[in-house]
Amino acid sequence: MFNEIMVPVDLRHVANLTKTLTIAADLAHKYGARITYVGVTGSEPSAIAHSPEEYSQKLAQFAASEAAAHGLNTRDHMIVAHDPAVDLNHKLADAVQELHADLVVMATHLPNVADYVWASHGGHLATHSKASVFLVRD
Amino acid sequence: MAEADESQGIPAPEGDTQLIDTDYEIGQDNVEGSLGPIGFDIHNPVFMVSALAVMAFVFYALALPQQASEIFGALRPWLTSTFDWFFLSSADFFVLFCLFLIVSPWGKVRLGGKDATADYSYIGWFAMLFAAGMGIGLMFFGVLEPVYHMAISSPLGTPSPFDADGNIIPANVERAKAMGLAATIYHWGLHPWAIYAVVALALGLFSYNKGLPLTIRSAFYPIFGERIWGWTGHVIDILAVFATLFGLATSLGFGAQQANAGLNHVFGVPIDITVQVILITVITGIALFSVLRGLDGGVKLLSEINMGIAALLLLFVLFAGPTLVIFSDFGKGLLAYAQEIIPLSNPIGRTDDSYRDGWTAFYWAWWISWSPFVGMFIARVSRGRTVREFITCVLIIPSLVCVLWMAVFGGVAIDQVLSDPATSAVKAQVIDSYNPPLSLFAMLEGLPLSSITSVIAIVLVIVFFVTSSDSGSLVIDTITAGGKVDAPVPQRVFWATFEGAVAIVLLVGGGLSALQAMVISTGLPFTLVLLLMCWAIIKGLRAEPR
Fold first, then answer.
1. Which single residue of A13, B407, B488, B512 could bond B330 by disulfide (Cβ 3.0 to 4.6 Å)?
2. What would the CATH number be for the domain defined by A4-137?
3. Do A44 and B485 touch (CB under 8 A)?
4. ipTM for the whole complex
């Protein structure tokens, strides 16, 4: 059913992603799919990394540790955005195509009034991508 | 020293750089939360103190307008006449400092590490640094300044080409023409761009190469060490937010007046506060849209559109005006600039107060108060350039473009004034009565198709206005989020709206002149900040592998 599962991750909030990561891993096992963890960063230093290269290594480490923990086939894919806060939505949509992902599993917040103005990232992706999108409420 | 250490996952950036080893984590002092449904992530002391202090200032200017305008009205001339030597010599120092860096061996250091590649193409890069760095000033002063310096302000004691009755004194014409352009180019050439380059280089170096957050305080790590994370750093950042916000609001004031004057000139729209408030609201609305579209989809796109329209207008004026005369004026102006730059930069023992205090010192303070904003913006789009490439591009190319702009707009205007003083609209609006917002339109009137070009000029004023407002909001948002570039988008909306609101409130309450005085006042302490920054840059560069 699914071959390539894409899981966007925010490395700052890995602790809150347990549910999402577990669901993604379960689905990957069920369908024998590969998981690609996707991280978006700017080129400016952030709390996670001083530079995109450092970020890339941390993302790779994360993917490797998930692979070891769940016995999965994983990849990692870093996206460098000029303006991460705004570019995130369409960069993720681009990544779905680029990675040929057929399923996206991602965490999203509970919907609220602000969604009328700023849709959640997951909501945006579900609206604009051909892949199936599985939104996990945190 | 954090060397590449795979086991800990903290490698160097691309290629070798010398990361500064600090335990500070970007955003560790931030407050994250949500206000109702809207999330925020702000550096609490910096965000709160800046926002509240700006509000307090606005409130004061409104509550006691008389007192505020008296105090601030006196403050500006006092500052520029007392500290003119300080502003002038500091600006000279920044130019020399930049020229030195170009030829020094440190020129080879690359921002973002030895193997970093540039994020933006040259065109996109120039468009953004230009739109952010000069913006509306080019429109406002392009005609006004050359004509004013030629005829009225007497830079270096150059005599006016007009006698008291308004008749031309032929003997003075050539020298006054050249000096009018040279004295203007001086304000828009190497000096302002050197000021911007210093700030941008410091931010780029300490952020991309040293791994510190993209905020003004980071540049002071070599001087204050870990103390920059405390109140020392808060004060620096708050000062930067002030300077940016007041600088922007001043610029918004100029823009609203000029757009209004243009609309009045072309369409007969009345010149009043209501129209200007509507203008600011509409423009802030467009800026909000641009800010929401982000750096690539909004700011960069608008900057490129902006540069395109500006280039068209420039070419039109060049070819519709006396083209050959303009070219020869351009040459003469540049030559006069080269000859006069040293006497014009001389900070002491001069008697041309109306030029030196009234214009030069005001400009230097203005550019310096804009420098955190423009510098940060330039830094953000300059990763991957070497120091030499960076300074050459930031210093030389924008200077040349400004020279060309001033030579064309000012050259045509001067030509109109001198060839037919009796009917020249520019002479009427600049020399006979002083009406700055109309000067550009008066010049266009003397050329063919003025109804079309005036409309283009109004559009350009508005777009310049938007590009300053949106990039300014991005910068203030980053500073008040402790150097985070991915803070929630509603924060940008807050700052863009806040700028517009400050401009409107002060426009209605009559506090714009107080605001200009505030710009100068923040420029003074910030000059010290910049001088310290030069020292920090040297210390930072010395530690970098070349």
1. B407
2. 3.40.50.620
3. yes
4. 0.72
